[in-house]
Write a structure and sequence with these properties.
Elements: H1 16-32, E1 46-52, E2 54-57, E3 62-71, E4 76-78, H2 81-84, E5 101-107, E6 112-114, E7 125-130, E8 135-142, E9 144-153, E10 159-169, E11 171-172, E12 180-190, E13 196-197, H3 212-216, E14 222-223, E15 228-229, E16 235-237, E17 244-246, H4 253-268, H5 277-287, H6 293-320, H7 334-352, H8 361-366, H9 373-387, H10 395-405, H11 408-431, H12 434-437, H13 443-470, H14 479-502, H15 506-531, E18 538-539, H16 542-550, E19 554-560, H17 565-575, H18 578-584, E20 589-595, H19 601-609, E21 617-621, E22 627-631, H20 636-646
Parallel strand pairs: 2-12, 18-20, 19-20
Antiparallel strand pairs: 1-3, 2-13, 3-9, 4-8, 4-11, 5-10, 6-9, 7-8, 10-12, 14-15, 16-17, 19-21, 21-22
Helix pairs in contact: 4-10, 4-11, 6-9, 6-11, 7-13, 10-11, 13-14, 14-15, 18-20
């Protein structure tokens, strides 16, 4: 473990005179204060406070230690040595000064790794002075400033980890006081599955901490004087009960994460968000069937470029744009969600052909009756946009891990790979267009297929418009579910009626009548199912979670949104199922819903704390705050078992 030595101990010859002047000023100040060491100490002008972000941590946890310096008005302390070498333009460092330094030791040696070399120092202030080389602007710390020391608890840690902090600084104004070293101690309890944050009075200390630092620290670095090497926390990948863990220190870890991202991207095409779009592409390829096979393949390539391009852009945003931390964050802006709905509605109208209205030319460029290269790229982008409200199994774990590393190249690589996986099916479909060629390319049958798909697309448009409107309201509306149900039922019944009118073969009638009745049945069931609540949910706040734990109750957190179709599917088919709802409605269980339909800062912060960037997500906490269960792809039995485990049964 290393720490920064004050530059005064190894001052270069050229700055020795300046250093001597400062020390003479210190001696002079001592004399003026009648030799009273307390009055001549920098501690009289700077108060020090320190705190750990976690009072109770789990093995493998990462946390900062905050060191706050409260500097008296008109006084300052020098920056750290490392910061003095990288001051903003216009500032210079006085390398004869006693630089601020922090040394932290952990006990026992194998319990935690303290990376003093990666301390996050506060921004410097500028002060003007003349120390013998004319007026200059020096970088210093003034007022109340906070430094953060990153700490990683080892996987083998247990019991109490005690940290000893030594903070060295020198306070200066018109004169400099004697340098001071303040020693403080902190304790963190390490309990398997435990996590209790700092008290309310200390929580604001950590608001400015940048967790990017953990992505730069090698978790296999030597820990303490014992030379024991730490192991990074395994990454758990949930998969409907077939959950597995990956070791970040394995040489195959990154390739496996890319594989998960690729497979997750493929699965995205079969989520409720994207599945309705695939038939549209098939119809488009059928309309292009008269062209050459090369042209059909190029249309597939163009759509894949649109898909991959969107995910690549999303990765760049997540890796570089401040405040952009979730892959579906665009849908947290109601205007965007409503805009997507209107976009889809225009496509639906142009596709179905029910209305003789003039639409913008770009609409016709991307609807399947007018398949083009440019239109296919835009269609690919739209398909990728529609996929972001959903999370596919495997993909969520890869995306969440990538974003929490804060490593731009890792984030971009993973999101690019998700896009590749999502775009592959369209390449395959265009490379082998035999299925598309079997669809009718003209006549009444083709018109019926387009009209039915247009109506279903219109139902999807109503979904997004309704979700966007609900993002502007305190209490969500339910009427859009009835409009969706009516529109979907109309599409199914239209398929039945027109099939009976125009189909000649019995097998064709059976196939399409059955499909139409299925669409109708699903559509009729949607409104009552989606508007009826079998569970009593409470709005999540950090205080609500604390209150539940103080009351000795199990807390179940459900991350959801009005625009998240996957979330609705999990809620209605799993959480509200007969066997699960009985358990969740028990008196000792508190249900907290984290709805991020609009901007929900508390919900976004909790999602980030859990190292996730996608929803749906279900988390179960025991009354003592232990995280018992966390998954994006769960089964009914897993939820029941998690609640029973949290109850100690």
């Amino acid at each position: 473990m290393t720490h920064e030595q004050p530059v005064a101990l190894r001052c270069p010859a050229r700055s020795y005179l300046r250093w001597l002047l400062v020390q003479l000023a210190v001696l002079a100040s001592f004399a003026m204060n009648h030799g009273a060491s307390a009055q001549g100490s920098s501690a009289t002008k700077v108060s020090v406070r320190s705190a750990a972000a976690l009072l109770t941590a789990s093995p493998g946890d990462r946390l900062p230690i905050a060191v706050e310096l409260d500097i008296a008005p008109d006084w300052h302390v020098w920056t750290s040595e490392a910061q003095s070498r990288a001051l903003p333009a216009g500032m210079t460092a006085f390398d004869g000064a006693i630089f601020t330094a922090i040394e932290v030791k952990a006990s026992p040696a194998t319990a935690a790794m303290v990376s003093v070399a990666d301390i996050q120092w506060p921004a410097p202030h500028a002060v003007k002075g003349d120390l013998g080389e004319g007026p200059q602007t020096f970088g210093v710390y003034e007022g109340k400033v906070i430094a953060f020391v990153p700490v990683i608890i080892s996987q083998s840690a247990s019991g109490t980890v005690e940290f000893t902090l030594s903070i060295e600084f020198q306070a200066c104004s018109s004169t400099c006081l004697g340098p001071t070293t303040v020693e403080q101690k902190l304790k963190v309890e390490v309990v398997s599955g435990g996590r209790i944050t700092a008290g309310a009075g200390e929580t604001p200390l950590f608001a400015g901490f940048d967790s990017t630092v953990f992505g730069r620290i090698k978790e296999a670095a030597a820990m303490g004087s014992g030379g024991v090497r730490g192991t990074s926390k395994p990454i758990k990948v949930p998969l409907f009960g077939w959950d597995f863990e990956l070791d970040p220190e394995s040489g195959m870890f990154f390739p496996v994460m890319l594989l998960l991202a690729f497979v997750g991207g493929i699965i995205l095409n079969f989520t409720p968000c994207v599945l309705p779009v695939i038939p549209l592409k098939i119809i488009g390829l059928a309309n292009a069937g008269a062209g050459s096979r090369v042209r059909i393949f190029m249309l597939g390539v163009a759509m894949s470029v649109g898909v991959v391009g969107f995910w690549l852009a999303l990765g760049i945003l997540l890796s570089s744009a401040k405040g952009f931390e979730q892959s579906n964050q665009l849908f947290q802006y109601p205007a965007f969600t409503i805009g997507v709905g209107i976009f889809i509605a225009l496509m639906a109208i142009g596709m179905a052909g029910f209305f003789s209205v003039g639409l913008p030319q770009w609409v016709y460029a991307i609807e399947p009756k007018h398949e083009s290269i440019g239109g296919s790229v835009i269609f690919g982008v739209m398909t990728a946009v529609l996929s972001t409200p959903c999370t596919a199994p495997l993909m969520g774990a890869a995306a969440g891990w990538a974003v929490t590393t804060k490593n731009p190249s890792t984030i971009i690589a993973v999101f690019f790979t998700i896009g590749l996986g999502m775009g592959v099916p369209y390449l395959v479909l265009s490379a082998f267009p035999q299925m598309a060629r079997k669809l009718p390319r003209g006549g009444p049958a083709s018109d019926v297929l387009k009209q039915v798909m247009g109506l279903l697309l219109l139902a999807a448009a109503m979904y997004f418009i309704g979700a966007g409107i609900n993002g502007l309201r305190e209490e969500p509306l339910k009427i859009h579910w009835w409009l969706i149900g009516v529109t979907g039922a109309a599409a199914g019944l239209w398929m039945v009626v027109r099939t009976l009118q125009i189909a000649k073969m019995a097998s064709t009638k059976v196939l399409f009548v059955t499909t139409g009745l299925f669409i109708t049945a699903i559509s009729v069931a949607i409104p009552p199912v989606l508007t009826f609540e079998r569970l009593t949910w409470h709005k999540y706040t950090p205080a609500a979670l604390v209150d539940a734990q103080k009351a000795g109750k199990v807390a179940v957190l459900d991350f959801t949104a009005e625009w998240c179709i996957n979330c609705k599917t999990y809620e209605k088919t799993i959480l509200e199922s007969d066997e699960v709802s009985v358990v969740l409605n028990e008196p000792g269980v508190v249900l907290l819903k984290i709805d991020i339909t609009g901007k929900n800062e508390a919900g976004a912060a909790k999602l980030a704390e859990l190292n996730y960037v996608t929803i749906p997500l279900l988390v179960v906490y025991a009354p003592n705050g232990t995280e018992v269960f966390k998954s994006e792809a769960y089964t009914r039995q897993q939820v029941i078992d998690a609640v029973r485990k949290a109850q100690g049964k």
